[in-house]
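In this section we walk through a basic example: taking a raw amino acid sequence and producing a predicted 3D structure, encoded as discrete structure tokens. The instruction is simple. Fold the sequence below.
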Amino acid sequence: MTRRNPTREVHVGSVALGAGHPVAVQSMCATRTQDVDASVAQAEAIRRAGGALVRLAVDSPRDVDGLVEVRRQTRANLVVDLQESYRLAERVAPFVDKIRYNPGHLWHHEKERPARDKVAYLVDVAREHDLAIRIGVNCGSVDPEMKARFPEDDVQGMVESALEHCRHMDDLGFDRYVVSLKDSHPRKVIEANRRFAAARPEVPLHLGVTEAGMPPEGIIKTRVAFEQLLSRGIGDTIRVSLTLPNPRKHEEITVGQQILDDIAAGRFRSVPVFDDDTLNIVSCPSCSRVENERFVDLARQVKEMTAYAQSHALTIAVMGCRVNGPGETDDADLGLWCGPTHVNLKRQTETLGAFGYDDILPRLKQELDALIAARAAKPQD
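The resulting token sequence is shown next.
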């Protein structure tokens, strides 16, 4: 593999990231953290497949109780994802090796409290319990103030959000952190990580294409981004985010390792360039926040039903939960985010209604046909 960027070393449990160490492959449990048996089984499947880190979501005190038991029963290096619940950090800290937080979600909670103070709290917890931190920036959840600063360049909004939170860490004298900048489009992932690496070459980077979707398209999107970045020495750990049923979640590790092996051997496949000239199906990789497991089947059905529209430059997003679903469908032409009994349908930021799982596909097709017809009716320049 190409000579790596000279990033500093960050320890996460038994794994060392950066500083020339092998690129670590990781994944995230899609089971409910409260379901201890299922979560342990999935964490162990990921670990046995070669996963260096296993992430779980914690959103409630009951999730914390589940995490305690998962920690007791697995040897995996555990990362906790605190999207909407950063205040639980001190409760989960004794049982994990790294905390991941999203700057955009942090902004939305306790808005009267400066972001730096919230970061200081997380750093204090990390120091006390010997933890690493990941600053995880996602395209669909950059805070509104940062987005407003870069209305014509959403990639720079992501980069500036990451840089701002790095400065918070630096001011606090804490350097045991890594950064991720993720989007569902490989081109934006490549650009965001190149810009960040140019500005902060010493910070280890976690690479991923968020909501890459189902195989094989999700693998292709991810491969394109990874090849372009890793070949430039950018990236210290990777996650392949695929929409897969729970028993197959560990396949993310296998795919990630294959991509790394191919890059190391000079086998590049980055011919596809996703230029937004065909139908793009975006779907999240599922996690414990998914409230109805029919989400994975629905994503597959959407892909099959919309095959007739393949030549149209439209994006359809299928998201599995209420945490990321509302915001991360805003940029899609049509978005679906799934609740326990209904699927919420959107046209960009406009909510069109909630429909039963058995009723959503016909309504989605109706909206898709209307968009295609509207575009066809527009005069060509």
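Looking at the output, two observations stand out. The first strand starts at residue 10 and ends at 12. The first helix runs from residue 36 to 48. In the next section we compare this with other chains.
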